[in-house]
From TrEMBL:
<dbReference type="Pfam" id="PF00085">
    <property type="entry name" value="Thioredoxin"/>
</dbReference>
<dbReference type="GO" id="GO:0009973">
    <property type="term" value="F:adenylyl-sulfate reductase activity"/>
</dbReference>
<dbReference type="InterPro" id="IPR036249">
    <property type="entry name" value="Thioredoxin-like_sf"/>
</dbReference>
<keyword id="KW-0028">Amino-acid biosynthesis</keyword>
<dbReference type="InterPro" id="IPR014729">
    <property type="entry name" value="Rossmann-like_a/b/a_fold"/>
</dbReference>
<comment type="similarity">
    <text>Belongs to the APS reductase family.</text>
</comment>
<dbReference type="InterPro" id="IPR004511">
    <property type="entry name" value="PAPS/APS_Rdtase"/>
</dbReference>
<keyword id="KW-0346">Stress response</keyword>
<dbReference type="GO" id="GO:0019344">
    <property type="term" value="P:cysteine biosynthetic process"/>
</dbReference>
<dbReference type="Pfam" id="PF01507">
    <property type="entry name" value="PAPS_reduct"/>
</dbReference>
<protein>
    <recommendedName>
        <fullName>adenylyl-sulfate reductase (glutathione)</fullName>
        <ecNumber>1.8.4.9</ecNumber>
    </recommendedName>
</protein>
<keyword id="KW-0198">Cysteine biosynthesis</keyword>
<keyword id="KW-1015">Disulfide bond</keyword>
<keyword id="KW-0411">Iron-sulfur</keyword>
<feature type="domain" description="Thioredoxin">
    <location>
        <begin position="316"/>
        <end position="458"/>
    </location>
</feature>
<dbReference type="InterPro" id="IPR013766">
    <property type="entry name" value="Thioredoxin_domain"/>
</dbReference>
<keyword id="KW-0408">Iron</keyword>
Amino acid sequence: MAATVSSSGITSCAFSRSVISSEPKVSQIGSLKLLDRVSVTTPMPLNLSGKRSSVKPLNAEPKRNDSMVPLAATMVAQVAEEVVETEDFAELAKKLENASPLQIMDKALEMFGNDIAIAFSGAEDVALIEYAHLTGRPYRVFSLDTGRLNPETYRFFDAVETHYGIRIEYMFPDSVEVQGLVRSKGLFSFYEDGHQECCRVRKVRPLRRALKGLRAWITGQRKDQSPGTRSEIPVVQVDPVFEGLDGGAGSLVKWNPVANVEGSHVWSFLRTMDVPVNTLHAAGYVSIGCEPCTRAVFPGQHEREGRWWWEDAKAKECGLHKGNIKENANVNGESKPIVEDIFKSENLVALSRQGIDNLVKLENRKEPWIVVLYAPWCPFCQAMEASYDELADKLAGSGVKVAKFRADGEQKEFAKQELQLGSFPTILVFPKNSTGPIKYPSEKRDVDSLTSFLNLVR
């Protein structure tokens, strides 16, 4: 029984509906027909009665269902629902810890059928679509169109649809909310008061609507993307933040098939499989988001440093994965993830508050100093650890002191007022015979760049 179901385009305030032609047809998800996965020996009647179906489109509101879904899809979802009710996902995560991304993807699609979809951001997470394609199972893909993406990303979306023969299910922000935000605060308010409000309107709320039509979703999170917030993500978990189709806590499962894969290995896979990629990557962009909030990174910088670069680097998350952030309150009431100290070269001086205070006040230094103001939980500080340790070893015995000062927590206000701290890391050079420090202006934190600046000002 050959058939297809087509969907109308969606706008910011309209949801797509399945259109049933005069000839009974079976819905297509991804690039394969559902009948390829359901054994049918006799013709199967379609659900044309207008009654509610147990399968909802991705972009359906939680309390309405205007699509009429064939019985084959209903059967897949019913089987998946029975499995989900009895599954211990913490235990499943342990079983799949050493599984390949392809095996994890196959398990996810097998368990959830039409009630799971891949969240595609327009970056290297295209690998998820390739893995889904390789399983031979039906799959769905959705993306959040914030209205502020790069032109290259929109062209990449089109290339992916053509390459895989799929239609990405786009989710849009509420036009009234966007209008209210822009009219009251302007187009670039996030540069002044942070990105969270804009991300909440353009990304988090559309995602919440999307997930209300699913029982599970698939993300491209990796542990090495953000050591401060993503280092402990499992390959599968009950979503700690969002709700799924059934509503309530525990109603949504989150799959992270490439959690244990390094970024370089993802790229090796993409090149091997000749998968289309966003052209922004060739321009130095690693982590890609909205155009005003994304830029290329330099050697020695962490990939997430290209996002919201004007803000404190404590938790570079837009809200889509805020459940990753595990925090611990210190004596000052400030919260930060628990992480061990960094910059451990034997040739590096660890300054105390009194030590850095004395260095600032010293008017006639006998040798120049270079000092990094850091927070050990900051992924961008972590990214420059190797180069800074190498610099300390290189300058040992040269007459230049290389030092570090931990400037978070109760030291943060002091560092802001007295040490020009803007965001982590901040690098200062204290020249010989000079009263005040000179702030390193570049974000190139490799050994050669730091050495060149030091030679200019020392």
